[in-house]
Amino acid sequence: MPNPRPRSRPLMIVPVLVAALAILLASSSTARGLFSRVRSQTFNKFTTALNNAPITTTTSTSTSPLQAAATANLTSSKMGRPPVYFFSHGGPDVQYNTKHPVYPVLQAIGKEIIQKVKPKAVVVFSAHWQATPSEIHLNNGDGPTDLIYDFYGFPDHFYKATFPATGSPQIAAKIQQLLTKAAIQSKGLKRGLDHGVFSGFNVAFPPNTDQAITVPLVQVSLFKSEDPDAHYRLGQAVEELRDEGVVIICTGMTVHNLRDMQFTWGDPRPLPYAVSFDNALKEAVEGDAEGRLDRMREVVKRGDARQAHPWMDHLMPIYVAAGAAGKDKGVQTWTLHEGSFAWAQYRFGDVPEE
C-alpha cells in the first residue's frame, strides 16, 4: 500500500515524538483535548533529544549492601536461564491509561518475570537510547537511578513520575567485558532511565507491590544505526548474562509510525502496513532459531518496512532480544494493531516451572 502521507505536508516530528503515542493511548475525548493543547503550543520549550541529554562519565566502584548481595547472587545462581523479553512500551501515559488493552498485558508479563522467573538482575535496552554508530553506552552509575522525562506537552504530573531503580557498577563492568570480548566498543556513563523504560515498567513492575523490581537494573544503549545485524550481534554478546540469572528486556514498538497518526485520528482501525509488517515480523521471529537472523534481516527490506518504521529505532531492540535468545525459540505472546502502530509482545525461551 502506498504511504498515505502527503509529501507536501511536513510535520514537526521531534516535538510530538512521544506526545503522539501518548495521545493515541488516551480515550477519545481526553485525546482530542490533549492534542489540541499540544498542537496549539509553539514547542519552543520541548526537551532536547534524548541522545543529547546530559551524561556524566563515572568511575565509581563503590557498592551498596543491596548491590553487593545481588551481585554475589548472580555468580551463584543455580536457576535455569531466564527468558528474554521484548516489550512494546507505548508512550509516557501508558502507566496512567489503565483502560488501554496493553495495560493488563504488561501487568501479566511483569508478574511472570518477578514471581516465576525471579531475576537476579535486569538489563534493559530501550529504543530511546542510541549511542553512536560504532559504540555502545551503558549506565554504570551506583545507587538510585534518575529518570529522564524525554517528552513534551503533557500534564504536569507526567513530569513527577517516579520509578525506584538501583544501578550496579559491577554488572555494568561485566557487560563491558562481554562487549569487549565480542569486539564491540563501549563506554560507561551515569545516565537516567528514559520513558521507554520507566513508563512501561511502572505498569509491569509497580513499585511497593509484590511485582516491584528489587534487584539491580542496568540500562544499555542501542547503536545509533538501523543495522539489524549489528543489533543482533549486540544481543549475542550479552547472552551469557542469562547464565547468571539476569533477565534481558528490550523495549520498542513492532510498528511505530508517528507521521501517519494524523490519518487515523479517532479511528483505531489499523492501516494495512500495521497488520502486514507485524505479521511478517512474527513469522520471522517464531521460526527455527537457526535461520532467525536471515529471516529477520529480510523483514527490514520489505516494501512496507519504511511505512511501519520511518526510522527504525523502535524496531532494533527486538533484534537485540533475538540475538540474546541464542538457540531459544521466540514467541509472540500478544499483539494489537491500532492505527499506525502495533503492540506485539515477545518472549524468547521458556518460563521456569514453579
Whole-number mean pLDDT: 83
Termini gap: 47 Å
Number of strands: 11
- Helical coverage, percent range: 25-40%
**Cross-sheet strand order for the largest sheet:** 5-2-6-1-11-8
- Strand count, sense and closure of the main sheet? 6 strands, mixed
Number of helices: 11
Order of helices and strands: HHHEHEEHEHEHEEHHHHEEEE
What Rg, in angstroms, do the CA atoms define? 19 Å
- Unreliable spans are 1-78
Structural class: alpha/beta
Write down the overall geometry.
Answer: globular
Strand residue content? 5-15%
Keywords:
zinc; 354 residues; single chain; six-stranded mixed sheet; 15% strand; 11 helices; alpha/beta; disordered N terminus
Structural commentary:
This protein is an alpha/beta fold. 35% of the residues lie in helices and 15% in strands. The strands form three sheets. It has a six-stranded mixed beta sheet with strand order 5-2-6-1-11-8, with helices on both faces. Helix 4 crosses helix 6 (195-204), helix 7 (228-238) runs parallel beside helix 11 and helix 8 packs antiparallel against helix 9. The longest helix has 16 residues, at 102-117. The N and C termini lie far apart (47 Å). Mean pLDDT is 83; it is low at 1-78. It comes from Neurospora intermedia.
